[in-house]
What we know:
Elements: E1 3-8, H1 12-23, E2 28-34, H2 37-45, E3 50-56, H3 64-71, E4 75-82, H4 88-93, E5 98-101, H5 106-116, E6 134-138, E7 146-150, E8 154-160, E9 163-168, E10 172-175, H6 180-188, E11 193-197, E12 200-203, E13 207-211, E14 214-217, E15 222-224, H7 227-245
Helix pairs in contact: 2-3
Amino acid sequence: MSISCIAIDDDPHALENLVAYMEKLPELTLVRTFTEPLQALAEISVADPVDIIFMDVEMPALSGIELASLLRKKAKHLIFTTGHARYAIDAFRVEADAYLLKPYSILHFTKTINNLYPVGNQDKQPLSIFTDHYFYIPLNNENDELVRVNFDDLIALEDQRHDINFITTTVTLLSAKINFAKMLNMLRSHSGFIQISSDVIISKKHIKGVIGDHILLSNGVSFAIQDSHKSSFTDFLNHNSSQSGS
Length: 246
């Protein structure tokens, strides 16, 4: 399988590193590189679409965010490369598929590509600002602040229609910026979490008890389990009990 790629970065050294990483993955085919965003806009606009566009954010004349909004339809996948996590909110807005924070390793780069083009039955994961241990969420405030949430601290995630409620061991955070489906897919694939209703996902490690249809969690948090999710939750409890007793 050949995956066609374009790389855009005004920093020649960063572009060189990116190309070097790409050369280590034989399935990636580099079509063109650009250091000038305006040149990239002019040429990509009239060229055939590609599979992936790698794009820096902070560039002269035209930022990567602005460029992405103009070229998003010219690539199946869009990956931002930048040294600043604060641009993650804008990445969501232009429907980026991944977000590589400089300096990123070849391991992180490879995981990002494997995520977009999974092998076998693996599911594609959401935006790569999520790592194995934490993720960032944008808050509902004027400054569009990003807050880091550790998986170990997350008790539950609740979809409240227009907002998403993140309940942690120390604070409750409200965000309307993240698509719930992306968070749902991310936590579905995370072995430490389980969905108990159409709008609630909880941390397995924070389960303190079950009373009837209610699940008791850390910090006095509790949620009711929907009938549609009772079977999977019961399977989890039975499997966990059998492992504990063996």
